[in-house]
Amino acid sequence: MVARDRPYSELKNSLIGKKVVIWTCNTCARLCYDVGGKESAERLASALKSDGIDVLGVLDTSASCLEGKVRSKYDEEMFGRADIVVSLTCNIGALCARRVFGKEILNPLATVGAGFADSERTVFVCEDSNGVLSVKELRKIAEEKGLWCDPYA
Protein backbone atom coordinates (compact mmCIF):
# COMPACT_ATOMS: atom_id res chain seq x y z
CA MET A 1 0.00 0.00 0.00
CA VAL A 2 1.29 3.46 -0.91
CA ALA A 3 0.95 7.16 -0.08
CA ARG A 4 2.51 10.35 -1.50
CA ASP A 5 5.86 11.22 0.05
CA ARG A 6 6.24 14.83 -1.17
CA PRO A 7 4.17 17.84 -2.18
CA TYR A 8 3.38 18.53 -5.83
CA SER A 9 5.76 21.52 -5.96
CA GLU A 10 8.72 19.35 -4.97
CA LEU A 11 7.85 16.71 -7.57
CA LYS A 12 7.42 19.37 -10.27
CA ASN A 13 10.72 21.07 -9.43
CA SER A 14 12.61 17.76 -9.67
CA LEU A 15 11.38 17.34 -13.26
CA ILE A 16 12.33 20.74 -14.70
CA GLY A 17 14.29 20.35 -17.95
CA LYS A 18 13.56 16.62 -18.28
CA LYS A 19 11.46 14.63 -20.72
CA VAL A 20 9.03 12.69 -18.55
CA VAL A 21 6.92 9.55 -18.91
CA ILE A 22 4.36 8.88 -16.19
CA TRP A 23 3.85 5.21 -15.35
CA THR A 24 1.20 3.86 -13.00
CA CYS A 25 -0.56 0.80 -11.66
CA ASN A 26 -4.34 0.45 -11.70
CA THR A 27 -4.50 -1.95 -8.78
CA CYS A 28 -2.89 -1.12 -5.41
CA ALA A 29 -1.79 2.44 -6.25
CA ARG A 30 -5.26 3.27 -7.55
CA LEU A 31 -7.02 1.60 -4.63
CA CYS A 32 -4.92 3.68 -2.20
CA TYR A 33 -7.25 6.66 -2.51
CA ASP A 34 -6.27 7.28 -6.15
CA VAL A 35 -2.66 8.17 -5.36
CA GLY A 36 -1.97 6.25 -8.57
CA GLY A 37 -4.05 4.82 -11.39
CA LYS A 38 -4.68 6.00 -14.92
CA GLU A 39 -7.02 8.90 -14.10
CA SER A 40 -4.72 10.31 -11.40
CA ALA A 41 -1.69 9.91 -13.66
CA GLU A 42 -3.46 11.78 -16.46
CA ARG A 43 -4.42 14.62 -14.09
CA LEU A 44 -0.81 14.79 -12.89
CA ALA A 45 0.43 14.89 -16.50
CA SER A 46 -1.96 17.74 -17.26
CA ALA A 47 -0.84 19.72 -14.20
CA LEU A 48 2.84 19.18 -15.00
CA LYS A 49 2.34 20.23 -18.63
CA SER A 50 0.55 23.38 -17.45
CA ASP A 51 3.60 24.10 -15.31
CA GLY A 52 5.99 23.73 -18.26
CA ILE A 53 7.18 20.15 -17.71
CA ASP A 54 7.73 18.14 -20.92
CA VAL A 55 5.48 15.11 -20.35
CA LEU A 56 5.79 12.66 -23.26
CA GLY A 57 2.92 10.44 -22.19
CA VAL A 58 1.11 8.40 -19.57
CA LEU A 59 1.19 4.60 -19.51
CA ASP A 60 -0.62 2.28 -17.15
CA THR A 61 -1.08 -1.39 -16.39
CA SER A 62 -3.24 -3.51 -14.15
CA ALA A 63 -0.21 -4.70 -12.17
CA SER A 64 3.20 -3.03 -12.32
CA CYS A 65 4.68 -5.85 -10.25
CA LEU A 66 4.24 -8.33 -13.13
CA GLU A 67 7.08 -7.94 -15.62
CA GLY A 68 5.08 -9.29 -18.55
CA LYS A 69 2.39 -6.66 -18.04
CA VAL A 70 5.01 -3.91 -17.81
CA ARG A 71 6.84 -5.19 -20.90
CA SER A 72 3.58 -5.21 -22.90
CA LYS A 73 3.31 -1.43 -22.39
CA TYR A 74 6.86 -0.64 -23.55
CA ASP A 75 6.84 2.10 -26.20
CA GLU A 76 10.28 2.19 -27.84
CA GLU A 77 9.82 5.64 -29.38
CA MET A 78 8.53 7.21 -26.15
CA PHE A 79 11.15 5.66 -23.89
CA GLY A 80 13.87 6.43 -26.42
CA ARG A 81 13.13 10.14 -25.89
CA ALA A 82 12.50 10.02 -22.14
CA ASP A 83 14.97 11.13 -19.49
CA ILE A 84 12.97 9.92 -16.51
CA VAL A 85 9.90 7.89 -15.58
CA VAL A 86 7.65 9.05 -12.74
CA SER A 87 6.32 5.80 -11.32
CA LEU A 88 3.04 6.07 -9.40
CA THR A 89 3.41 2.54 -8.06
CA CYS A 90 4.72 0.66 -5.06
CA ASN A 91 8.48 0.10 -4.76
CA ILE A 92 8.21 -3.31 -6.45
CA GLY A 93 6.32 -1.78 -9.38
CA ALA A 94 8.95 0.96 -9.68
CA LEU A 95 11.80 -1.57 -9.65
CA CYS A 96 10.06 -3.67 -12.29
CA ALA A 97 9.54 -0.56 -14.44
CA ARG A 98 13.23 0.34 -14.16
CA ARG A 99 14.21 -3.18 -15.17
CA VAL A 100 11.93 -3.16 -18.23
CA PHE A 101 12.17 0.47 -19.35
CA GLY A 102 15.88 0.95 -18.63
CA LYS A 103 15.36 4.54 -17.50
CA GLU A 104 15.87 6.54 -14.33
CA ILE A 105 12.81 6.05 -12.14
CA LEU A 106 11.42 8.64 -9.75
CA ASN A 107 8.86 7.09 -7.40
CA PRO A 108 7.16 9.88 -5.42
CA LEU A 109 5.21 7.34 -3.37
CA ALA A 110 6.20 5.61 -0.15
CA THR A 111 5.38 1.92 0.15
CA VAL A 112 4.14 1.34 3.69
CA GLY A 113 3.40 -2.38 3.47
CA ALA A 114 1.12 -5.07 2.12
CA GLY A 115 -2.56 -4.64 2.63
CA PHE A 116 -6.07 -4.67 1.23
CA ALA A 117 -9.11 -2.51 0.54
CA ASP A 118 -12.40 -3.49 2.13
CA SER A 119 -15.78 -3.43 0.38
CA GLU A 120 -16.16 0.27 1.20
CA ARG A 121 -12.68 1.00 -0.20
CA THR A 122 -11.06 1.74 3.14
CA VAL A 123 -7.42 0.71 2.80
CA PHE A 124 -5.72 -1.30 5.52
CA VAL A 125 -2.05 -2.19 5.96
CA CYS A 126 -1.01 -5.47 7.55
CA GLU A 127 1.34 -5.27 10.50
CA ASP A 128 3.34 -8.16 11.95
CA SER A 129 4.38 -7.96 15.58
CA ASN A 130 6.37 -11.10 16.38
CA GLY A 131 4.07 -13.27 14.31
CA VAL A 132 0.86 -11.62 15.50
CA LEU A 133 -0.87 -10.08 12.51
CA SER A 134 -3.05 -7.00 12.76
CA VAL A 135 -4.26 -4.26 10.43
CA LYS A 136 -4.19 -0.48 10.61
CA GLU A 137 -5.85 2.04 8.33
CA LEU A 138 -3.52 3.45 5.68
CA ARG A 139 -4.66 7.02 6.43
CA LYS A 140 -3.55 6.59 10.08
CA ILE A 141 -0.14 5.22 9.06
CA ALA A 142 0.30 8.00 6.49
CA GLU A 143 -0.51 10.63 9.10
CA GLU A 144 2.02 9.11 11.53
CA LYS A 145 4.71 9.12 8.82
CA GLY A 146 3.96 12.57 7.36
CA LEU A 147 2.62 11.15 4.08
CA TRP A 148 -0.48 12.09 2.05
CA CYS A 149 -3.34 9.82 0.92
CA ASP A 150 -4.58 11.82 -2.04
CA PRO A 151 -3.60 12.28 -5.69
CA TYR A 152 -0.95 14.78 -6.81
CA ALA A 153 -3.48 16.60 -9.01
Question: How would you characterize the overall build of this protein?
Answer:
The structure is a single chain. This protein has 153 residues and is of the alpha/beta class. It has one domain (2-145): 3-Layer(aba) Sandwich (Rossmann fold), CATH 3.40.50. 35% of the residues lie in helices and 29% in strands. It is built from seven helices and nine strands, in the order βαβααβααβαβββββα. The protein has helices at residues 8-13, 28-31, 38-50, 67-71, 76-81, 91-101, 138-145; strands spanning 2-4, 19-25, 54-61, 84-88, 104-106, 109-111, 115-117, 123-129, 132-137. Strands 3-2-4-5 form a four-stranded parallel beta sheet, with helices on both faces. The chain starts with a strand and ends in an 8-residue tail after the last helix. The model has no long low-confidence stretch (mean pLDDT 97).
Give a quick set of tags describing it.
153 residues, alpha/beta, Rossmann fold, four-stranded parallel sheet, three-stranded antiparallel sheet, 7 helices
Number of domains: 1
Q: Which CATH class?
A: Alpha Beta
Query: What share of residues are in beta strands?
Result: 25-35%
Record the strand order, biggest sheet.
Answer: 3-2-4-5
Work out the helicity level: 25-40%
Compressed to H and E, one letter per element, the order equals EHEHHEHHEHEEEEEH
Count of DSSP-assigned helices: 7
CATH-defined architecture: 3-Layer(aba) Sandwich
Task: Compute the average pLDDT.
Answer: 97
Main sheet specs: 4 strands, parallel
* Spatial gap, N to C terminus: 19 Å
CATH topology: Rossmann fold
